[in-house]
Specification:
single chain, 13-stranded mixed β-sheet, 4-stranded mixed β-sheet, 5 helices, globular
Length: about 280
């Protein structure tokens, strides 16, 4: 995955290189845009946070030189939830995708009513399905409120409700509301599910076009509820379609003796822009 390539450059003026990428997509202007600082040597946490704020994307990745010394095609993301292994998928020597492994086992926390979660996304209680899973806060590192709705049309019509968010969330550390439907039209295949995710941003409630951490948590929950005892449950999940940034997130959950063993999510990536910046005092 281009976003995680460690590039060594020699520059006496300490111009730090960066690229921007669209992730969980194979086409430009799809998926989730994020920034990658290709050489983060010597940067403090405060400097990294300031740079991430300047880019103003949902995420900024900083590549450290030690990553290039990995003995196999695997990188590690340092996240609040822990170290997240990222495997690089190649085809004919070309990087075509990456896949991350959830850093923690599935945690299932508070359950909410259909009426409560419906209010979060401006739907009716009847448009929330509870027969296969109760609306619940779940996480495999970062918690999210996850629930199922009845139809693709309900997913499309959903809108975040600020008053409901203010009264119901955060809960068990979950700030975001992730909801999905199995009612996927043929035109949106190979998606098995279509999902959206609303969460509080710097300018109010916003939507994320692709949320790997929420998607893999939802996949882990669905796998735990599935009757499969041994093998893999694979799901292709669409997100961002209703905001014009279609994303495809590929999930798989390994099960053994009826229990989840590991949960994974991956996808493709497209490089968009590149440039340099210089921090005051460097050079």
């Amino acid at each position: 995955m281009i976003a995680l390539r460690s590039i060594k450059h020699e520059d006496n003026n300490m111009q730090r290189r960066y690229i921007t990428v669209d992730v969980f997509t194979d086409r430009a202007f799809g998926g989730n845009p994020l920034a990658v600082v290709l050489d983060a040597r010597g940067l403090t946490t405060a400097q990294m946070q300031a740079i991430a704020t300047e880019f103003n994307y949902s995420e900024t990745t900083f590549v450290l030189a030690t990553l290039a010394k990995q003995p196999k095609p695997q990188l590690r993301f340092e996240e609040k939830a822990g170290l997240v292994p990222v495997d690089i998928v190649r085809d004919g020597g070309k990087v075509v995708a990456t896949e991350l492994t959830a850093p923690q086992a599935l945690s299932r926390m508070s359950q909410l009513s259909a009426g409560d979660v419906a209010s979060l996304v401006s739907l009716t209680p009847e448009e929330v399905r509870t027969d296969r899973q109760a609306p619940q806060v779940v996480g495999v590192g970062t918690p999210f409120l996850v629930f199922e709705v009845t139809s693709r049309d309900a997913v499309r019509r959903a809108k975040p409700n600020a008053a409901a968010f203010g009264s119901l969330l955060p809960r068990d550390g979950a700030f975001g509301s992730y909801f999905y439907t199995r009612d996927v039209p043929a035109a949106e295949k190979p998606c098995d599910l279509q999902a959206r995710m609303f969460f509080p941003g710097s300018s109010g409630l916003i939507e994320d076009p692709a949320t790997g951490s929420a998607t893999v948590a939802a996949a882990a929950l669905l796998a735990e509820l599935d009757s499969l005892r041994d093998g893999e449950l694979k799901l292709t999940i669409g997100q961002g379609f209703d905001m014009g940034r279609p994303s495809l997130l590929l999930t798989r959950v390994r099960k053994q003796n009826g229990a989840n063993v590991s949960a994974h999510v991956g996808g493709a990536c497209v490089q968009m822009m590149e440039g340099t910046f210089k921090l005051e005092g460097e050079g």
